[in-house]
Write a structure and sequence with these properties.
Layout: H1 6-18, H2 30-38, H3 42-46, H4 52-62, E1 77-82, H5 94-97, H6 103-114, E2 118-119, H7 139-145, E3 149-154, H8 164-169, E4 187-189, H9 192-201, H10 225-269, H11 320-323, H12 364-383, H13 387-390, H14 424-431, H15 451-463, H16 469-487, H17 497-501, H18 508-520, H19 524-527, H20 531-539, H21 547-555, H22 561-566, H23 575-582, H24 584-588, E5 591-592, H25 593-610, E6 614-618, H26 620-623, E7 628-629, E8 632-638, H27 651-661, E9 665-670, E10 681-686, E11 697-703, H28 709-717, H29 720-732, E12 736-737, E13 742-744, E14 759-760, H30 767-773
Parallel strand pairs: 1-2, 1-3, 3-4, 8-11
Antiparallel strand pairs: 5-7, 6-8, 9-10, 10-11, 12-13, 13-14
Helix pairs in contact: 2-6, 4-6, 15-16, 15-18, 20-21, 25-27, 28-30
This protein binds three DNA strands through residues 61, 290, 292, 433, 464, 467, 470, 473-478, 480-481, 504-510, 543-549, 572, 574-577, 620, 631, 633, 670-673, 679, 681, 683, 700, 702, 715-716, 718, 720, 723-728, 730-731, 736-740, 751-752, 754.
Length: 784
DNA sequence: CAGTAG
DNA sequence: AGGCCTTACTG
DNA sequence: GCCT
C-alpha cells in the first residue's frame, strides 16, 4: 500500500520540530489513519451507511462546494470496490461480501469526492453495452471529457490483490456481476495509489503507472468508423439540447418577469381552480405575527391578530374561505384581521392571558388596512418608486478579496452567464450562503440607524423562551436577523417586503415584523406581554439563569430579581448564579471601552510582573473595536518557539491570585480543572480597584497553547454569528473548526455527528491561514 | 445529562 | 423534512 | 424562523 513518501514524512517531521515542542502530531498517512479508525467501534462507524451508495449520497452533500482543494479528479468517474474483507479463498461467493462498508473505504471515498471525483456506487455501475451503444465515445475524447470510469479496488493489505473476475463479480446490480466483455474501452482498473498520487500532485496523473496488470480494455474491440461518426453526432445532439434548454430557461425567466408571480404559479400548479379574474386573488398576505409567538396554552388578547379598529368591513366577499379554509389570504377580510390564524379566529376576551393588554400603536391601523386591502405585493409595487428603498441593501461591489481567493469553485451553478431580470438583491443573497463570506465593511453599531429595530427583534427573540428545540432555533433566527439588521444601512419606513425577504436569512414572517417595527417603532407583540413573560425575561438576565431556570423560579413563585435576591437558596440556584445575582445591577451594564482598556492594562501589568514574556490579549468585542463590551475576554499565551520552550503553564493561576490580591478579581464563577494546564480558563468577576464607584464586571481569562493561537484568535474575536458561520462552512467542507484549530479529514455520520477528530491542518500560523484554507475573504477583526 | 455560557 | 457551531463547566 |  501507499506508505507516505519519505519526502513527505521528513517534511512533517521538520514542521513538528519547527513548532518547537513536537506537540502537533505528525499527520498520519491515510493508511495509518484507516488503521486507527478501524480500531474504533465498528458498529458505530458502519451502521449508518450499510451500503456504499448511501455513503456516497451522504458525502455529496458535504462536498458540493469544496473551497480550495485542487479539484484534480474533476470529471473522473470512480467506482470504489471494497475487496478488503474478501476471504483469500477465491471460491467465496461474492454475494456475501460484496462491497462491505467500513471506515477505511469511507475515507477513500471522502478523499476522492473532495477532489472533484464523481463516485459511482459499485451496485449502480452499469457496464456500457456495446450492442446498444454505438455512440460510444472515442477514447481520446472520452479521456478529455472525463468519460472514463476508473474502477478502484480498495485494498489495505496488498497481499490479497483481487483478481479481475473478483472485482467484476461485485459490480452492477445483479448477482452475477458483469463480464469482461461488457466493459467498454472507457473502463480502467487502477490502484488506489493513483487516486492518492493525483491528490498529492494536485493534478490528474496518467494512469499508466497504476493500471492493474492485464488491462482488460484490450478485450474491447476498437471503434469502427461508424461508431466514431456516432460519437460526433452525439456531441452535436448534446450541444443542441443544451441550447434548447437554455432558451427555454430564458423564456421562462422572461415570462416570470413580465407576467409576474401569478402567471408562473398558475403554470406550475397546473389546473388552477377558479381563475377568478384579476391577479390579486393569489396575492398572499403574510401574517406579521403567528400563534407560535405565544407561549403554550395562552391566548393573545382580543384584537391581536385581528386589529379590531382597523377592520375594513365588507371590503371584499369571502370567496376563499370555502375553498381554502384557514389559509391567509389578502382581500378576503374575513374577521377583518391582518391575517387570521387558523384556529385563532375568535380570540375571546376571557381567554386572554392575565395582564395582557392590547394597546393601539399609532400608525398601525392604517398599515393594517392598507395591507388588508391591497396585499403585500401591491404595497411593494406602490413603494417601488421610492428612491430610498432601492439603495438599501446595496452590499455588492465592496468585496475585499484575498489575493489568493479564487472565488467559488462550487458546483458550477454559481456561474453568472445568465442575467435574469430578478432583483439584484436576490441574486446577491443567493450567492453567499455563508455569512462569513460577506466582507461587507459596515460594522454593527449600537448607535446605528436600525438600533431600535434590532432591539425590538431581540426582545421578540427572548419571548421564544420555551425550552423546546424548535423555539430555540426560532430564537436564534430572530437574534441572527437582529444582528444583521444592526449592520445594515438605514431601513426606511417605505421598505418593501420583497427587499427584506431577498436578504439571506430574512424570511416572509420576519420581514413583515420588521416592516411593522420600522413603520410604527415597535411591535404589537411587545405591547401585551404576559406576566410570566415579563418575569422570565427579567430573571434570565441574571448570570447563570437561562430560560429553564427562569421558568422554574417563576413557577416557584419568584416575581422579580429582587425576589431571588431575598432568598436565593429557595430556588436552588447554583453558587455562580448567586454571585451573579449579588452583582445583578452592575452586570446588566455594558462596559465602556475606556474601562476595558484600563482593566486590561492593569491586569497586563500584573502579568508582566509574573512573566513578561507571556502575552495577554484582550479579545471579544473589544478586539472588534466596539465602543462598549458586555464582558472582558483575556487570552493568555506564550511563544514556545523561543529557545527555552517555556510555556505559560501555571501563569493563569498566579495571575488570578495576583488579581485577587490587587482587588481586581472579585469573585470566581467557575474555575479550570487544571489551573496549571495550558488551556486553563477562569470565569469570574472583576472591578477597577480603589474606586468607590467602580462597577463589577464579568471577566474570562483563558490560556491558549501557542500553536492554537490562530484558531483561538478567530474564536474569541467572534462575533457569535461569524463564528457559527465560519464553522458551518468548515464543517460542510469536511473540516472542523474550533477554538483549538482547524482539522481536516473529519468523518461524520449521516447526521453530521463527528465520528473521528480529524487531523490538524498543518502550516497554519495565523488567522489569515485559516481564512485562506476555508476560502473566506479576509476581514480585519474590526470588520467582523 | 440538561442547562448555561462562550 | 431535516438541519441549524463547538466546547467546557456545573450540579 | 429560515434554508435547502
Amino acid at each position: 500500500s501507499a506508505r507516505s513518501s519519505p519526502a513527505r514524512a521528513s517534511k512533517v517531521a521538520a514542521a513538528a520540530t519547527v513548532k518547537g515542542k513536537g506537540r502537533a502530531k505528525a499527520r498520519l498517512s491515510l493508511e495509518q489513519e484507516v488503521d486507527r479508525v478501524l480500531k474504533l467501534r465498528k458498529t458505530k462507524l458502519t451502521d449508518p451507511f450499510p451500503t456504499v451508495a448511501e455513503l456516497v449520497a451522504h458525502l455529496v452533500q458535504f462536498t458540493s462546494a469544496q473551497p480550495n482543494a485542487k479539484r484534480c479528479l474533476e470529471g473522473c468517474r470512480i467506482v470504489f470496490v471494497n475487496t478488503e474483507h474478501w476471504s483469500s479463498a477465491p471460491s467465496t461467493s461474492a454475494k456475501l461480501t460484496r462491497n462491505p462498508m467500513d471506515e477505511g473505504l469511507r475515507l477513500c471515498l471522502t478523499v476522492a469526492i473532495r477532489h472533484g471525483a464523481t463516485l459511482i456506487p459499485p451496485e449502480e455501475f452499469v457496464a456500457p453495452d456495446p450492442s446498444v451503444s454505438p455512440d460510444q465515445l472515442d477514447p481520446d475524447q472520452a479521456e478529455a471529457e472525463g468519460w472514463t470510469t476508473h474502477i478502484v479496488p480498495y485494498v489495505l493489505s496488498q497481499q490479497r490483490l483481487p483478481t479481475y473476475d473478483q472485482i467484476l463479480a461485485c459490480l452492477g446490480p445483479d448477482e452475477g456481476g458483469i463480464s469482461r466483455e461488457q466493459l467498454g474501452p472507457f473502463v480502467k482498473v487502477v490502484k488506489y495509489k493513483w487516486v492518492a498520487s493525483c491528490v498529492e500532485k494536485r493534478a490528474k496523473v496518467p494512469e499508466t503507472m497504476y493500471l492493474l496488470g492485464g488491462d482488460f480494455r484490450q478485450h474491447a474491440p476498437p471503434l469502427t468508423e461508424q461508431q466514431k461518426r456516432a460519437v460526433k453526432e452525439r456531441a452535436q445532439r448534446m450541444e443542441v439540447q443544451a441550447k434548447q434548454a437554455e432558451q427555454a430557461r430564458v423564456a421562462k425567466t422572461k415570462l416570470r418577469a413580465r407576467a409576474g408571480k401569478d402567471a408562473l404559479e398558475a403554470e406550475d400548479s397546473g389546473s388552477d381552480h377558479g381563475s377568478n379574474g384579476g391577479g390579486e386573488d393569489e396575492v398572499e398576505v403574510v401574517s406579521p405575527l403567528g400563534s407560535q409567538d405565544w407561549p403554550e396554552g395562552e391566548k393573545p388578547p382580543a384584537g391581536y391578530f385581528a386589529h379590531q379598529t382597523a377592520s375594513p368591513l365588507g371590503a371584499a366577499p369571502d370567496k376563499h374561505d370555502t375553498t381554502r379554509p384557514g389559509e391567509q389570504v389578502g382581500g378576503g377580510g374575513s374577521g377583518g384581521g391582518v391575517a387570521v390564524e387558523a384556529g385563532e379566529d375568535e380570540p375571546e376576551g376571557q381567554a386572554v392571558a392575565a395582564g395582557a393588554r392590547f394597546k393601539s400603536i399609532p400608525g398601525l391601523e392604517q398599515e393594517v388596512q392598507f395591507l388588508n386591502t391591497y396585499g403585500q405585493e401591491v404595497m411593494d409595487d406602490v413603494l417601488e418608486e421610492t428612491p430610498r428603498t432601492a439603495a438599501l441593501f446595496e452590499l455588492d461591489g465592496m468585496c475585499i478579496l484575498d489575493d489568493d481567493y479564487d472565488g467559488d469553485r462550487d458546483t458550477g451553478e454559481g456561474t453568472d452567464e445568465s442575467f435574469d431580470d430578478e432583483e439584484p438583491a436576490k441574486k446577491k443573497a443567493k450567492r453567499s450562503v455563508w455569512a462569513c463570506d460577506d466582507p461587507e465593511g459596515s460594522v454593527a453599531s449600537r448607535n446605528g440607524p436600525n438600533e431600535n429595530i434590532a432591539m425590538v427583534l431581540e426582545m421578540m427573540a427572548d419571548l421564544a423562551s420555551s425550552t423546546t428545540e424548535k423555539q430555540q432555533f426560532r430564537q436564534r433566527s430572530y437574534k441572527k436577523i437582529a444582528g444583521m439588521v444592526r449592520k445594515m444601512r438605514e431601513i426606511p419606513k417605505e421598505v418593501r417586503h420583497k427587499d427584506l425577504c431577498a436578504v439571506h436569512g430574512i424570511g416572509k414572517k420576519t420581514a413583515s415584523k420588521i416592516i411593522e417595527i420600522a413603520r410604527t417603532g415597535t411591535h404589537r407583540r411587545l405591547q401585551c406581554l404576559t406576566e410570566t413573560e415579563r418575569i422570565a425575561r427579567e430573571l434570565s438576565g441574571v448570570y447563570g439563569i437561562g430560560k429553564a431556570i427562569a421558568e422554574k423560579a417563576a413557577k416557584a413563585g419568584a416575581k422579580s430579581v429582587a425576589d431571588l435576591k431575598r432568598d436565593p437558596h429557595k430556588y436552588g440556584l447554583s453558587a455562580a448564579t448567586i454571585k451573579g445575582l449579588e452583582h445583578y445591577d452592575d452586570l446588566c451594564e455594558r462596559i465602556p471601552r475606556a474601562e476595558v482598556t484600563e482593566l486590561y492594562e492593569s491586569i497586563k501589568g500584573l502579568s508582566d510582573k509574573i512573566d513578561p514574556k507571556v502575552q495577554i490579549e484582550c479579545m471579544g468585542s473589544y478586539r472588534r473595536g466596539a465602543k462598549s463590551s458586555g464582558d472582558i475576554d483575556l487570552l493568555v499565551t506564550r511563544d514556545t518557539t523561543s529557545s527555552t520552550g517555556k510555556t505559560h503553564a501555571g501563569h493563569i493561576a498566579k495571575l488570578w491570585r495576583a488579581m485577587e490580591r490587587a482587588g481586581i478579581a472579585v469573585s470566581t464563577l467557575s474555575e479550570p480543572d487544571q489551573w496549571h494546564g495550558l488551556a486553563a480558563k477562569v470565569n469570574g468577576l472583576c472591578r477597577l480597584p480603589d474606586r468607590a464607584d467602580a462597577k463589577v464586571r464579568r471577566i474570562d481569562i483563558l490560556g491558549v497553547p501557542w500553536e492554537e493561537m490562530p484558531a483561538a484568535l478567530i474564536y474569541f474575536t467572534g462575533d457569535d454569528h461569524f463564528n457559527r458561520s465560519i464553522r458551518l462552512k468548515a464543517r460542510k467542507h469536511g473540516y472542523r473548526l474550533n477554538q483549538r484549530g482547524l482539522y481536516e479529514n473529519v468523518s461524520r455520520d449521516r447526521k453530521g455527528e463527528k465520528l473521528t477528530e480529524g487531523t490538524l491542518v498543518l502550516g497554519i500560523r495565523t488567522e489569515r491561514d485559516i481564512f485562506k484554507k476555508l476560502c473566506v475573504p479576509w476581514r480585519e477583526p474590526t470588520l467582523r
